[in-house]
Amino acid sequence: MTWSRALKETARTGLTIERTRLEPLVALRGACGVAIVIGLILWLGSPPLAVSSAFGAFASGIATFQRSWRPRPVLALAAAAGLAVSTFFGYLAAAHPLPFVLLLAGWSLLAGMAWAVGPVTGLVATQMVAVMLVTVTLPTSVFGAVEHAALIAFGGLVQAALIVLVPIRPWGAQRDALADAFAAEADFARRLRDDPVAPFDPQPLMNARHAAAMTPRQARRRPRQLRGYRALAERIRPVLASLADPVIGAPAEGPERDRVRDLLDAAGTVLDAVAHAIRWGKPVRLPSEAMTVLEVPAAGPILQGAARRSALRLMALLADVVESADEPLETVEPVRPTPRPPSDQHGPTPQDTQQQASSGQRPSAAKQSASAKQSASGQRAGSGVEAVAVRNALLRPTVPRLVPVALRALRREVRWSSPVLRHAMRLAAVACAGYLLGLVMPLGHGYWAPMASVMVMRPDFEQTYSRGVARFAGTLVGVLLGGAAVALGHPGEYVSAALAVLCVGLLYLLLRTGFTVASACISAYVIFLLGIAGEGWSQTVQDRVGLTLLGGLLAMAAYALFPAWETPKLRDRLADWLVANGRYAIAVFIGHARPLERRPRHVREALLDARAARMGWEQSEARAQAEPVRHRGISRRSAGAAQTALSTMGRVTMLLEAHPPDRDAPPSPEAAEFAAALRAALPDAATAVRERQPLDWSAVHAALDTWRDREGTAALPVRCAELLVDALDELEGALSRGPGGRNRPRRRP
């Protein structure tokens, strides 16, 4: 992509206003916190003190709107405490330019390195530097610096107290994450009706896992509806895929495929109903048609083999999901129970019933009624869910225990090739350069230039440039509107305070619609807030718009001169994904090789690593598409084909995972040999991907040929191994494309 096209695309992205769900009550609560602080300090103190305290409440409120699963009061207090410390030291050094520049450089460097801990930490740390540049313009003494810092902390304390005293949809973020996971699976089930090999985006399940990680105190207080669901959601996805797959599941056409389509549609309906119940804490409402489909048909057997096993497992899992809601089950209309023929061969056999009883599964979701759920069997199911919740508990470290974790993350990023370290160095250099330029330029409010740079800069190219355009456009609108209101209305202290609170409320309400809107609200808020302290507006429009443009240009120039491109790292990300997928496949095949020693936890950990590697690749690939850099070793066409091959590899492994062997099944030495061959080939393959060398899967092909000769191609593990090797061959072909798009000759055993 050329620079002109890259700038055009990033500008379009920055100016885009997204349509998102608004939270007016939460925004009103945050605005009330700012209003309480400003009004109280204006009544008891002075306007400069009111401005300082308002910035504390404002920054704490923004911190609570970030996408974090930690308790919102903790986020508010942490943001206010950090801002109070940074502002105190800024006040002490503000009277001397050289010490303040050194302090600004060090603090900006730390704020940039905070991105190593996480995006929320990086955003809050960046906000501390930006707000410090504003608050230190208010003159004060050492005692006054302590007073201002205490008032900033007080603003965060007020926001935290409001969150505790006025809870608005508590656990709403966790509910939404879990509900989104089930809604994504419902959409997946419906797409499988028309496309049996439709892809599934694991991001909702990853978000649900992050939301399930709680501190010990949160884990004790969370609602019952948030316990046990996530583990069931993870088990449903491979069953849906294996049921729909035309190679492993039902044939592509015929009565069995029609039955599969009906089951998938009913599963989507049930999962949507469960998602709605989780999101709003209401009973699960199931249409009678879906419940009828999820019963064993009375006409006789329809599905056979692996498809039949997948259907029975899906029915049992959906029943578990409905029971885990811990809410009365409601049907849209009453359903008469369908009598089952005494010799129904399509129904569960005694062996199936015994297996389901040993695994804690139930035969059908449609057989669960409200009275049955409140009986002793429902109590047993509830205790089973509690056991699952305890077994799958994910404990997030508390804030004190997070310190060593953060230090280890910082140490990992202290290397020249780290994008976080480069971002920190850019941030420190640009903040100091912008501050010095603001001092020497004959303009008022010179801090707007470094503040704009700090608010714009991010570790990647696309966000930095798109936010630079959005910041300038939003600042232009906010300064024009705020300056016009001040010039025409000449508001006093309390009117300016009311207008500032109004801007804060709009900011909290529209924060997730885009950075342009947020920048407009912030600019107007700063104008009205400084108006409380008696700041004039005569230089506001032209000078502040010019300084904002200067800050944005400095940020963009810094990234262009000292970049951290993602494009050269694509092959590394691809190699990481290949290794993670290979380990996931090895864990699944080892389970078939030695069923008695099968460890589901090992498979689960390998699956999580594969998901993380896939998301790392997708994020890097998306960032690389917006960069004005040549592909340097892998073209877009080759990258797309390689992504398809690795996605197929993960999907095939997931299909085999959905059909684990029984504990008493005989071991398979051939599966162990295939897994060993794959394990031996992975390191060399990853090195070949990174160094642009041809891949060699000859040992894996030989192990597969031996397995086929001994067991044939009818066995499910053998068929999955064939599909897996085909995906590896597709990866080899994708990475062996020449510059013109043609494939170079591939080595074959």
Automatic annotation (TrEMBL):
Q: Which UniProt keywords apply?
A: Membrane, Transmembrane, Transmembrane helix
Give an example GO cellular component term for this record: membrane
Annotated ranges, domain Integral membrane bound transporter: 435-557
Q: Where is this region: Disordered?
A: 326-382
| Domain of life of the organism encoding this protein | Bacteria
Q: What is its main location?
A: membrane
- Membrane-spanning segments: 26-43, 74-94, 100-117, 124-143, 149-168, 427-448, 468-487, 517-533, 545-562
Which residues fall in a compositionally biased region of kind Low complexity? 364-382
Q: Which Pfam families match?
A: FUSC-like, FUSC_2
Q: Where is the composition biased (Polar residues)?
A: 346-362
Ranges where the Integral membrane protein YccS N-terminal domain occurs? 81-188
Q: Where in the cell is it found?
A: Membrane
Give the way it sits in the membrane.
Multi-pass membrane protein
Q: What is this protein called?
A: Putative membrane protein YccC
| Organism lineage | Bacteria, Bacillati, Actinomycetota, Actinomycetes, Kitasatosporales
